[in-house]
Amino acid sequence: xxxxxxxxxxxxxxxxxxxxxxxxxxxxxxxxxxxxxxxxxxxxxxxxxxxxxxxxxxxxxxxxxxxxxxxxxxxxxxxxxxxxxxxxxxxxxxxxxxxxxxxxxxxxxxxxxxxxxxxxxxxxxxxxxxxxxxxxxxxxxxxxxxxxxxxxxxxxxxxxxxxxxxxxxxxxxxxxxxxxxxxxxxxxxxxxxxxxxxxxxxxxxxxxxxxxxxxxxxxxxxxxxxxxxxxxxxxxxxxxx
Length: 241
Fold this sequence. Notes:
single chain; alpha/beta; six-stranded parallel β-sheet
C-alpha cells in the first residue's frame, strides 16, 4: 500500500512538472524570446546615486505632497502653528457634528487641550484605561487624530508607526482621520523614510508601519470604486510650519 501511495505521489509530481514546463514555455512563446533558465545578473542594489541625491526644496515638497494627496481624494491644509491646528479640528468637529473623537496619546496632542476645546464631543486618549476595549472605541469614533512620523512628497504618503501609545486603530477605524504633519518630517523621496527602518535594525522595528495616501479606496469588486471600506473615507493632512 505504501509503495502504491508513493508511486501515486511521484506520478502527480511528474504531471505537475510537465504542466509547469508547458506553462513557462507558453509564456516565453508569447514574449517571443527563448526560455530563461538562469537568473539575470543584478549589478546594482537599491536606488541609483542620482535618485539618492534627488531633493526638492521645502516649497516644492509641500506643493508636490499637496497635489498628490488631493489627486486621490484627500484634503490638505497648510497651517502656521499648533494653535491653528486646534482651531481647525474644533471647527471641523462642529461642522460635522462629531460626537466621539479618539487621539493618539502623545505630548504634542496633550498640549492641544482638545478635551476642553471640543465641548460637543467625547474625547478619548488611546490606551489610557486598561478596562477600555480600545478597538471598539476607535471603531465608533467620528474623528481619529494622529501625528505623522514621516511624510513623503513624491508619493503623497504619510507614515504612521504603531506603539503602545498610538495604536493603528486610531488611524484605521474612525470615519474621519486628521493627520498632523510637522513640516520638518516631510521628505522628498520614500527612500529617505525607509532607510530609517534599516538603520534602526530589526529589533527596533515597530509592530506596524502604516503608509496612508488619502482616504480608503477599493475597486476590487466589479471595478466599482468605493471610498471608506477599509479605512477612513475622509482624510485631512495638516501641514504645520
